[in-house]
Amino acid sequence: MSKDEEHVKLRILKATRKLAAARGFDTTTVREICREADANISLVSYYYGGKEQLFEAMLDEFMLGKPFSDALRQENLDPVNGVEKLVARLFELWQQDPEISLILHQELALRSERIEIIQRYTLPAWSLLRHYLEQGRAEGLFYFQSLDLALLQMTGSIVFASNAAKAYPMLPLLDEQPLPPHEHLAQLTGSLLASVGYHSFTT
């Protein structure tokens, strides 16, 4: 594939992400995507096969969940370091690409037929988080009654609290200036570990 073709394909995917985040994937048309991308409308069918396939191609381009989850598994980290590294990587992804986070929220809220596609990209990370929680409880590092509830609490906090730029306009009760990213991550990680009963004994 030539560089020009790769450039056009990336423009189409970026336009899809931008419009789907702003208006929802269902209400965004192929014609609007191609207008935004300055691309011929026939190229969506040519490169991707149609609008629905474009959704998966967009996630494939912009979501990196499985590669970093596999890398963390290979590091064989202890539960605390595993949670810290996983949260940091997810936080970085949401900070870099809040539009993808918003699209995932929209699709899940609508219970769309694309949830199975989304799960292929998100479940590796959430499965790894569940593994760390289960291992940490077995080793006496974490204390909680329900693994499912602990996992739900953590995943919700990671996705929502990591995307502060979107959360602040939605919640008028939040009247403080957002923290710098490194402080935001430190507080988020500390809160998540405290929520599962972890106490650091370092001095």
From TrEMBL:
Q: Which InterPro entries match?
A: Homeodomain-like_sf (IPR009057), HTH-type_TetR-like_transc_reg (IPR050109), HTH_TetR (IPR001647), Tet_transcr_reg_TetR-rel_C_sf (IPR036271)
| Domain of life of the native organism | Bacteria
- Which residue ranges does UniProt annotate as crossing the membrane? none
| A Pfam family recorded for this sequence | TetR_N
Annotated region of DNA binding: 29-48
Going by the UniProt record, its keywords in alphabetical order are: DNA-binding
Using the record for this protein, list the coiled-coil segments as residue ranges, or answer none: none
Give the signal peptide, or none.
none
Q: Which PROSITE patterns match?
A: HTH_TETR_2
Establish whether keyword DNA-binding is in the entry: yes
* HTH tetR-type domain: residues covered: 6-66
Q: Does the keyword DNA-binding apply?
A: yes
Supply the name of the protein. TetR/AcrR family transcriptional regulator
